[in-house]
Structures
1.
Amino acid sequence: MARPGLAMKLHFSITAAEELRERRGGRYVLYSVCLEGFLLGKARYSQLRRWDAQLRHLFGSAVPAFPPKFYLAMTKSMADERRSQLEQYLQNVTLDSNITNSDVFIGFFRKLQQDTFEIQTQRAFLDVYLADGSNLRLDIQTSDTAQRILEVTFCKMGLSRELIKYFSLFFFQDRDDGALSVVKKVAEFELPYVSLQSMKELHCKLGIRKWYMDPSLDTQLMDCRASLNLLYIQAIQEVKRNWVKPTEGQMQELEFLQKNANKAKFLELIREMQFYGYVRLDPCICDYPEEGCSADIYVGNNEINCCIKLPTNQTKEVSFKINRLRSWQVTFLGATQDGEEDTLELRFEYNDSGTWQWIILYTKQAFLLSSCLKKMISEQMMKAAKGGQEMEIKMPESTKNRKKSSIQEKQVVHSGFISRKTFLVRPNEDNCVFEKIGEEDL
């Protein structure tokens, strides 16, 4: 079931290329395909080439160019170019929703996930959590996609399939301090059961939440009792977790309406409150108005709102409006000093009083923030289309920089272009070489 909106590339990357030996002595390269920074599966060039042929048979010229086959031994530069081209291909092929909703596309990634993590198709139980901590236990197949899981969840809750476009599945963590940390939105073709197994060390849960950034879209869900209830329990939890900022008077009104179980009036009132319908990120570091400032980030309703703590211990609230944002990129900075987790940044180009400048947020939820930005732009495009207006979104011009660097230098992953470190790993050789792969536009 296709969802309407602006077509944008998914956050695909190939983060490693592992050279292996076949039983007969030949060599081949196994590519680590990641989605939003998490390993989705590992594939050989020959597998991707056969998949491309299947897509091309169905969709013809709509399929982007596939990296050519080499008939001679590949040099290091040729291997680097192929990896970069494969990454571009995976990103570009997701621009066409007819392709991403096809059985050939979904079936390929289903098999890739299952083969990589060695999980066969079988019956299983999967818990899907609601915002209040309750859960639905679903009887599923391990090979069920997120879209299928969402449909089963809707059926069990008595929700209309027409409303499925307003919701999505997310992986999240309940932190020890009681805070909720959203890890990532689950892609429609992703296998939630397999992903949970591959992310065991993160102790993630699978949850259903509304997926739109414009709070006024609540009105589209108010006539359905089940969807109204989903909005209501999510709104209550967002108040409890301090995601929403009601005044003292507003808080008293909310408590009165909650006590009387007046859900519709509760939602009507809370839509007037600061940060309702926003996604709150974990506390992070930013470079605005100066480097090293801590910030609480709220994204929604066509803005990135930053509550910034200055070095003087004063607090400054800054709103970055989406219509003054020209481009953004996600950057992989490498592992932390203790080596426990990777660090990310999201930087966006913003027009501040007529001057363009880059604002940097250092957050492990950079991919989630990027997805929220895409969603806001998509909603603006849809609203403009309904109103008969024209809206142009400009992405950055292509640039190339093939300077080599050491492992300590940063790697960039970007919504408009990508440049990053990718490592060629030869685990069976004594001298493993880790070199930066050249930067490349998406």
2.
Amino acid sequence: MAEIAVTVVINRLLSLLTEEARLLRGVHSEVEDIKRELSYIQAFLKDADAKAEKGDTISHGLKTWVQELRETAYSIEDLVDEYIHHFANRPRRSGVIFDFLSKVSCLIAKLKPRHEIASKVKDLKLKVGKLHDESSRYGFISSFEQGSGGSSDTINVQWRDPRMKALFIEEAEIVGIESPKGELINWLVEVAAERTMISVVGMGGLGKTTLAKMVYDNEKVVELFVCRAWITVSQSFKMEMVLQNMIKKFYEAMKDTIPEGMDVMDVISLSGLLKKYLEDKRYAIVFDDVWGLEFWEFIKSFLPENRRGSRIVITTRNVDVGCAIRESRFHHVHNLQPLPLEISWELFCKKAFQGSCCPSELKKISIDIVKRCAGLPLAIVAIAGALLTKQKNELEWQKFNDSLGSKLETNPHLESITKILSLSYNDLPHFLKSCFLYCAVFPEDYSINCAKLIRLWVAEGFVKGEKGVPLEQRAEEYLNELINRSLVQLSEVDDVGRIRRCKVHDLMREIILKKAEELSFCHVLGDEDSSFNGKFRRGSVQQGTNTIAMEAINRNAQIRSLLLFNINAVPMLLTGISFTNFKLLKVLDFEEAPLYSVPEDLGNLFHLRYLSVRGTKVKMLPKSIGKLQNLQTLDLKHSPVDELPVEIMKLKKLRHILAYSYHFNPKGLFRTARGVHIGEGIGSMLDLQKLCYVEANNGRGLIEELGKLRQLRRLAIVNLMEEDGLSMCASISNMKYLESLVIFSKDDGILNLQTVSDPPKHLRNLCLQGGLSRLPNWLLELRSLVRVDLRNIRLSYDPMEAFQALPNLFELCLSNAYGGECFCFTELGFQKLKVLRLFDMKGLKTLNIHEGALPVLESLEIEPSPQMEVPSGIRLLKTLTRLDFWGMPREFAYSMLPQVGQNYHIVEHVPNVFFHEFHADGRKILRLR
């Protein structure tokens, strides 16, 4: 695990040696030497971490060496940042006289700090050299040198794979797999002659191996597939051994004599033997615990497609692996889900109470424990087994639950949870380990905003740059990789399939939090941490006022990140005392904290990259914010800040300005946005990716400057005047990478947006509010549009014919868009539309839906249209799953009542039909059935 810290430092030194070489006068060679020594040590750390991850018992001496190396790496990182901060803060000179005076004063002021830094560099060089020399005694295998050495200082213990237990569980002990078991058996025994692949995908501990073994041993499967084999693959495999194992298993199943000399055959000979043996047989094979795509690429050509109904099953934690074998339509993927609460409870009682009922006094705490397991069978069984050794009283079980995180490491009954869940973490490359460990800063059972997480990763420097690819895009790829590896779970996906929120399983979070604390990577501080005196790089303050916890942070001057969650009051440390002690801070997150002001000396945080006062009571930003030369993200969302100081224009590295709040109308249907006032000069912020929402208060000058922001991915502007429309169109034409565009006119006036000469071809989301004489022609050229939201555009003609030509439109929302009586949806129109919302169309009477229109529509909402008749074409929408009517007369709803309503036949196929009524005391929702 020390490799993470060392790798971060090496990358930091590389940046210093290249981008900041001008600052290294006098110490360049020492810094180069430190980088070279660390690179050499890094090669051995891969082996050291591998030994620890596999459970090898390592000596106290080795642990001390690794810890000292990690602390030295952190010291180097601190020194690098101090060095840059020191020299970047030199005053700028202008003029001959000032130049002379400045040289004299700076020479006196800077000689001592420069000498101190140079001295520290030399000391650290000696320390790293010593660590290098000591590394030889531990017998590590270098990743770029051959050879290994034994050592009396290291004791190797054979690692037992806890997954082996799954192969010997009796079926009577298992609950909750009847449905997936039946599905898999049906796929195996179906009559298709083509070779069929089946993937079972899910996070570690869900029971993939257990399920696959139950199916493999099922009598129907055994009877149909005489030639069969079970192969456990795991993270590391040797091609020869896999092929030898497959041949032996197949020959044994067929009761044939195993060929002689297999042990000395190479891969080519073994693969030829296997393929020849299987070419005339119907075979079934299970590859359990496949980790990488390279395994399937290796093995697929040795398994013949002989049209005899053969079946190949793999179990994997990686979605990419499960989908990679899809090479024909004969492929099934079963995404194994966590057990529902009632099944989890049944399994827990079966194990913890040996089939008896749960005592009433233990019911509440038992349910709490089961909920923490979040449907993970491995955790339920292991924890229930551990509780068998405890006295059956509420206090004892409550103590166990409160200390569950620490017991995962120390209780032998829970060892299997840690080992199995840790396998997925251990398989990560070091840069993904940093990203995943960062998830530990969020509270237990916390739904993480994905966009925020991505911005935090970028601010922390975890994301590797790639020419032509924004850091945020690379970070999104990292997140998808963690999701596909079943380490991060989806918790919210929007209508177009974009991941909005994610979470980490509570027990997995306990494991990575433990690892993160061992690494000094981060520490979670609560009121119970009053005695904590250790070092950490990132602090997560959770619950209460945590004044004592903040004192622990105050003792860690090298802290890089500070995030606050669910606190009742912001400690004085962050409101009334100087930030001088925290000059290395990169992340400062006050989201939802009861904060009313930001200290004036905020500008002392030279390295700050991420600042959030989202959801706070902060009204103004200090002028010193102009000194934050490295700031990337400024998040003011849902705060009272309505104007940015002019000094903001100095921040050339800003990538995200999020400064707006939503206001909903009394019915809660529509939201408007308040933007932030910003002065001219924004055109100099060339790195901006997101800018929303901006008040168009400075008129044409501001609008024209927006055209210089060619990297923008998201832009939202409010209160646009009609006369500024032409300038707005010209600016939009320069934004080649724009993906989301929001424009609100002033007082719902006219939007003059007809003349965008070069519309952004990547635009996916478009929201316009204001009058349009006609739809802009360029809008209909946007082939990538998936979401369109048009409000108060007040067209004089039915726009549906134009919209249905958009090939990828997924969601369409129209409000006060048309004054006519009918919307017409023609045959083959809207082939991908899944969500349709029609609001505030007072004259609308009906929807004319032709056969073949809206073939995949799932949700339809219609808001007050007093003259509306129940559209008969709804009965043609076979995929519709939800239908909402807002503010309609009671008679309209009664006409669709089951059995008695004359229009019930139109909506009887829709499972969810809702009527929303508005009253003085709020909104009432009626469900049809």
